[in-house]
Every structure is written in structure tokens, then in C-alpha cells.
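User: Sequence for NADPH-dependent 7-cyano-7-deazaguanine reductase below. C-alpha cells please.
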Amino acid sequence: MSRYDKLDQLGGSNALPASPEDAELERVANPCAEPYMVRLVAPEFTSICPVTGQPDFAHLVVDYCPQDWIVESKAFKLFLGSYRNHGDFHEACTTGIGQRLVKEIAPRWLRIGGYWYPRGGIPIDVFYQFGTPPEGLWIPDQGVPPYRGRG
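Assistant: C-alpha cells for NADPH-dependent 7-cyano-7-deazaguanine reductase:
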């Protein structure tokens, strides 16, 4: 029996969960005892405005330092995809993703940057952090410049 036998989503055909609450975030044992950072990037994240029903788009960057678990990437992709028909404001989506990851994988430290594309002329960037980064952890800049339009 492999340590990966309990992964139900990886390697299978999976439909997008109907909602973020229905999504299962599978996890894998952390292979490294020393502190290191994992970066997950979703440059084409979408959700729905809860008032107008119009789509909202964001570039998400999640950085975390694992403790005992790492999130399985296909499960993370399906979790993010479950937001496609989910109506919530930028702030709720960004912080909700960060909080759900904290709940499921209990990292030493986590941050998420939600860089939302403008609708109505105003870009909104949302940031959430859990914990304090371990001393000496290399944390690169998220690399997403502020929105400047065509200027």
C-alpha cells in the first residue's frame, strides 16, 4: 500500500465541485521536516459578483510553509474551479481560500495575494496571512505588479 492510496481525485476524472463548501481538499504528508516554501499560482481564477452575476477575474498567489501536510495540486485546482459559479465579493473569496487551506493543511505560515482585475474601473487587491514565517524562510516577492491599465 502506497502513502498516496487515499488520494481519490488524482489520476481520476473529476467534475468541478458545485461550491467551495462541496470541494474536497486532499492532502499529502509533507516530505521535508525543514522549513521550505510552496507557491501555488492561479493566474485565471474566476468567481461571480454576488450582486450583478457578472464574472470577476483574479491572479491568485498562495505561498505557504508546510507543517505536516501539503495540499494535493489537483484537489486545489478543483477547489479553485468550484468558485466559477460562486457569488462572493473579492475579499470573501481571497480570505476564504486562505482560511480553508489553513483549516485543511495547518501550515506553519500561509499568505495569499488576490490581484483582482478591474470592473467598474477599480482594481482590488486582497491579502491574507496566517501565522509568522519561520526564521530564515526564503520568501520571494509575489511578482504581481499593481494594475496600471494601458498607461
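The longest strand covers residues 38-48.
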